[in-house]
């Protein structure tokens, strides 16, 4: 059943997959090097890592998740918005909840 | 050599407890019996070809159902062991550490290995049939999901006789679940059992979301879709967003245990409360994941057995979708007492209470559907009627717990235990049982016996109230959860004894159901019409049990309750039974890869549990090999010829 549909519309090329993979690897190695070499510390380190993570998220979205493809991008957009809302809730919510904990300690 | 082997065996196998030796013997005897029966009746090929490699959603659903009933049995035995231990003060039936293991496995099994698969069983059996589809969107992935769940559950259950059970509670809070406090392999079993079955759950969520969005019969708009399918859509959205959080949280815990990291440790910058925060971000949606499909089931049943269209269809849809989004904004109410500050607690108290609004809307809709309906008190309807008052009380005590300052009093007391059992048994279990009774004829072609069913219904229900109402009071009297015994001076003895009696009544109810099923296999009323309840949705338009291709011709839908409308039109003589030309049906081929791949996951999981890297690597290599093998498989589908469809339909008495 799925087989037919995979042949009718393309799901990216080898080139785009390899590019996405290479970029993801590079964006993963940079933070590891930053941490291991102690090049940055504290706030700047965390901000850099978060920025690189967001960048990698976007790369995966475009190179692997095919957000631009499909006949009905409406579903994609809806799912993305909901996903972003939930990610925001997880991150901001955890920071808010834990900030009091940190203040007490 | 021999002494080495002896040493290994004494740590590898769980020893010392007569209950567990008994279980060892039972496991060996059951395995021998199964192997003997399969060999004697030459059923191995049949088992492999018809079931283990099947990608048919109906068969996968039945396998889910069998597995979940077995897990219900094990979780139920755990519950009865605990209630025996607590029946009277100072009983020495279970030791403290054994009691810890039992409440841990009871909770984990009931939620993750009983409720989830029972829910997936109904998804699989019902959703494609309700939508007028021939299978789910990804049949191969569906089989893989089932086997991942199955092997995950087996890995978890294995801890009972090998290595030792987890004992840090059903959510394995650190620091108790860290190496510092639980150096054994029990917690590893917990992590890997859940991780492996969790991949399957996530895949099922994706599968059913796509099925519902893409595979509906021509003409069926989303707003014409039966409410059970809507509830599955709502649940799938929650699964897709919630399960990754669980996977990450448990992965971090495993990194702590396996590689000595410090995400959740007490020292070196770790923060155990972060685990609690993260796990409840999955845990709270999880309880709605299991209850929303039950709401869908009640909606179908109330409408069918009141002979009325559901009251407030649109408000039902909106309330389910609102609940699925709101569920991500209430998690802190599970740990108000962490003391995150008044502003945090207030926010989450209010968001929790807000959930009561859409839920209340649903309760009123069910009541108004029944109002002036022609109610038939068949078994599915009985369970639905029992659910409503039970869930209302459970919801009300939930709102009490949502009051953050008051929660400091209720937190982790038996009041909480009574509350969540009331919503989980009264809401989820009653709902799934109602669904099983309702769709049983569609699965197997016969009804379950009414008389035995009524015995089961009443023992379950009376047992429920006898068991859990005293626990509310015990909570107020100061009894906290997870205590393994108590003294006479606490004054808890009478109510605990009553509660234990209730638990055993529910156990008797379960025995009645087993009896009911075995009796009905032989004597149950056969369903020759395909529509035994005079129901409203498309699954009842086809024969029972459904033929493997479901619909000989794909139905065209133009309104809600499509099958009811069709029946009305036929009765009024407006429309003859449609007989469009048959075409060969495109179907997916069976595949052995799902079960083999899941077995490799099991091997990898077992290796990680005991830190045997060679075994973990071997398992993961096997998984990779299966992925590769599947990627290069092109011959995955076939066509059922028209002659064969005609023969099958004729065998159901439906000439086309």
UniProtKB/TrEMBL annotation, chain A:
Coiled coil: none annotated. Keywords: Cell membrane, Electron transport, Membrane, Oxidoreductase, Transmembrane, Transmembrane helix, Transport. Its main location: membrane. The keyword Electron transport applies. The chain crosses the membrane at residues 21-39, 45-65, 77-98. It is found in: Cell membrane. It comes from the Bacteria. It holds the Pfam family COX4_pro. It is a multi-pass membrane protein. Belongs to the cytochrome c oxidase bacterial subunit 4 family. PANTHER family: CYTOCHROME BO(3) UBIQUINOL OXIDASE SUBUNIT 4. This is Heme transporter CcmD.
UniProtKB/TrEMBL annotation, chain B:
The keyword Cytoplasm does not apply. InterPro entries: Cyt_c_oxase-like_su1_dom, Cyt_c_oxase-like_su1_sf, Cyt_C_Oxase_1, QoxB. Its cofactor is ferriheme a; Cu cation. It comes from the Bacteria. Residues 40-558 form the Cytochrome oxidase subunit I profile domain. PROSITE patterns: COX1. This is Quinol oxidase subunit 1. It comes from Gordoniibacillus kamchatkensis.
């Amino acid at each position: 059943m799925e087989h037919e549909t995979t042949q009718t519309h393309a799901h990216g090329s080898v080139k785009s997959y390899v590019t996405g993979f290479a970029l993801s690897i590079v964006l993963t190695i940079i933070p590891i090097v930053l941490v291991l070499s102690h090049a940055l510390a504290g706030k700047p380190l965390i901000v850099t890592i978060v920025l690189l993570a967001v960048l990698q998220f976007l790369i995966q979205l475009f190179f692997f998740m095919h957000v631009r493809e499909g006949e009905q991008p409406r579903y994609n957009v809806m799912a993305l918005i909901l996903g972003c809302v939930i990610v925001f809730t997880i991150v901001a919510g955890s920071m808010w909840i834990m900030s009091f904990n940190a203040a007490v300690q | 050599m021999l002494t080495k082997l002896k040493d290994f065996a004494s740590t590898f196998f769980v020893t010392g407890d007569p209950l567990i030796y008994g279980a060892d013997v039972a496991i060996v005897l059951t395995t021998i019996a199964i192997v003997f029966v399969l060999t004697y009746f030459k059923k191995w090929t049949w088992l492999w070809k018809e079931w283990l490699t099947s990608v048919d959603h109906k068969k996968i659903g039945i396998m889910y159902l069998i597995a979940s009933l077995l897990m219900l049995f094990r979780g139920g035995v755990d519950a009865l062991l605990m209630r025996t231990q607590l029946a009277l003060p100072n009983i020495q039936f279970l030791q403290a550490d054994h009691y810890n293991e039992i409440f841990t496995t009871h909770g984990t099994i009931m939620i993750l290995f009983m409720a989830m698969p029972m829910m997936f069983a109904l998804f699989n059996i019902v959703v494609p049939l309700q939508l007028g589809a021939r299978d789910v969107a990804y049949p191969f992935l569906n089989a893989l999901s089932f086997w991942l769940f199955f092997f995950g559950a087996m890995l978890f259950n294995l801890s009972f006789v090998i290595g030792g059970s987890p004992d840090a509670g059903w959510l394995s809070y650190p620091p108790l679940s860290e190496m510092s406090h639980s150096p054994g392999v029990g917690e590893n079993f917990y992590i890997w059992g859940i991780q492996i079955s969790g991949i399957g759950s996530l895949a099922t969520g994706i599968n059913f979301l796509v099925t519902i969005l893409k595979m509906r019969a021509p003409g069926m708009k989303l707003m014409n879709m039966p409410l059970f399918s809507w509830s599955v859509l709502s649940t799938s959205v929650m699964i897709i967003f919630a399960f990754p959080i669980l996977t990450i949280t448990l992965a971090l815990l495993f990194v702590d245990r396996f590689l000595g990291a410090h995400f959740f440790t007490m020292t070196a910058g770790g923060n155990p409360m972060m685990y609690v925060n993260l796990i409840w971000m999955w845990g709270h949606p999880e309880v709605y994941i299991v209850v929303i499909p039950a709401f869908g089931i009640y909606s179908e049943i109330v409408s069918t057995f009141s002979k009325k269209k559901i009251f407030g269809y649109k408000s039902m849809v909106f309330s389910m979708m609102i609940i699925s989004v709101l569920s991500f904004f209430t998690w802190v109410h599970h740990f108000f007492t962490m003391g995150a500050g008044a502003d945090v607690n207030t926010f989450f108290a209010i968001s929790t209470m807000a959930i009561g609004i859409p839920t209340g809307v649903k309760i009123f809709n069910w009541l108004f559907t029944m109002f002036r309906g022609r109610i038939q008190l068949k078994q599915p309807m009985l369970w639905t009627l029992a659910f409503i008052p039970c869930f209302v009380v459970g919801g009300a005590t939930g709102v009490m717990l949502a009051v953050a300052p008051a929660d400091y009093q209720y937190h982790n007391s038996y009041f909480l235990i009574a509350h969540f059992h009331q919503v989980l048994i009264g809401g989820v279990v009653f709902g799934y049982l109602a669904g099983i009774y309702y769709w049983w004829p569609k699965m197997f072609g016969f009804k379950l016996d009414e008389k035995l069913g009524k015995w089961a219904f009443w023992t379950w229900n009376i047992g429920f109230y006898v068991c859990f109402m005293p626990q509310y009071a015990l909570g107020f009297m100061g009894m906290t959860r997870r205590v393994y015994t108590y003294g006479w001076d606490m004054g808890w003895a009478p109510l605990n004894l009553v509660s234990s009696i209730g638990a055993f009544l529910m156990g008797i109810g379960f025995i009645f159901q087993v009896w009911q099923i075995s009796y009905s296999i032989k004597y149950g009323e056969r369903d020759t019409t395909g529509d035994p309840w005079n129901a409203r949705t498309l699954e009842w338009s086809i024969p029972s049990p459904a033929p493997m291709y479901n619909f000989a011709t794909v139905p065209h839908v133009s309104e809600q309750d499509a099958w009811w409308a069709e029946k009305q039109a036929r009765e009024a003589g407006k429309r003859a039974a449609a007989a469009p030309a048959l075409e060969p049906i495109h179907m997916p081929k069976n595949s052995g890869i799902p079960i083999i791949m899941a077995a490799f996951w099991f091997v990898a999981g077992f290796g990680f549990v005991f830190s045997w890297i060679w075994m973990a690597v071997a398992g993961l290599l096997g998984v990779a090999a299966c992925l590769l093998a599947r990627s290069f498989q092109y011959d995955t589908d076939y066509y059922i010829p028209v002659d064969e469809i005609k023969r099958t339909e004729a065998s159901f008495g439906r000439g086309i």
